Amino acid sequence: MPRQASAVGDPEIVPIEFASFHDQTFSNEYLQFMNVTIPPGQIAAYHRHTRDFAQVYMAVSDAEGTPLGGKPVITPRKVGEVLFTNYTKQPVVHQVANVGTSDFRIMGFEIFDSQPGRFAPLARPAPYVSVMDNHRVQAWRLILQPGEAAPPMQQAAPGVRIVVQGGVLVEGVQGKPDHKLNLKYGDFAWQNAGPVRTMRNAGTSTVELVEFELK
Q: What residues does each domain of the chain span?
């Protein structure tokens, strides 16, 4: 099984969007969304992070992160875990090698604007749970069992939705007909600011979402 490449000998360093197994699936004026799946035994060679990055761990394995000139480190993670890294303040060059036996997958996004303060997310009622709140993003986890519903809430800032566990969800948006969604694990959606909406699990499986709002 391949291990991390040595930093000796001035290795090639590429921007994140050109790194192996980093798939840029969406981009707009606010952010660049990345879907990263590193198979067992594979390496995402040295790449550069210069923008703040928020992510959700979708599949976990033994993944060695090696900073340029440093030593490899394996940090245990959990599926659904949310992480933010302030790369604007402290840029990093590193590589990631999957030395485990299953896929290592994250879904996340780089924030283009280096300065926060454009948006102000509002609090959300239970069963939404705040899982991240910093100077760049607010993130909420929503877990709905079959038949459960989330009360009305307003999304005051633009952001993204990532589906950790899929199922059939009915989304109600104020002033519009209810919208039934067949969500799949790993689905991603851009969400504009403004609408007041409700969510109801109309299926037979647990649905888990992580929703980010920009600041």
A: 14-111, 128-214
What's the distance, Cα to Cα, between the start and end of the chain in Å? 42
Could you give the angle at the alpha carbon of 111 between the alpha carbons of 105 and 116, nearest 5°? Answer: 135
The four Cα atoms 25, 62, 103, 47 give a dihedral, to 10 degrees, of: 30
* Helix, strand and coil percent figures for the chain, each rounded to 5: 0, 50, 45
- Give dist(CA 36, CA 57) in Å, integer: 10
Long-range contacts of 17-22 (CB under 8 A, 24+ apart): 18/47, 19/44, 19/45, 19/47, 20/44, 20/45, 22/47
Q: Measuring CA to CA, how many Å separate 126 from each of 34, 144, 200?
A: 29, 11, 13
Ranges of residues in the chain with a pLDDT under 50 are 1-7
Q: Domain 128-214: what homologous superfamily?
A: Jelly Rolls (2.60.120.10)
Tell me the C-alpha distance between 80 and 59, whole Å: 8
Report the pLDDT value the prediction gives residue 115, as an integer from 0 to 100.
Answer: 82
Residue that is written with structure tokens 């649905």 in the block: 207
**DSSP 8-state secondary structure symbol assigned to residue 17:** G
Topology (CATH) of 14-111: Jelly Rolls (2.60.120)
Q: With 0.85 as the threshold, say if the pTM is over it.
A: yes
Residues 97-130 pLDDT 10s: 999 999 999 999 999 988 888 999 999 999 999 9
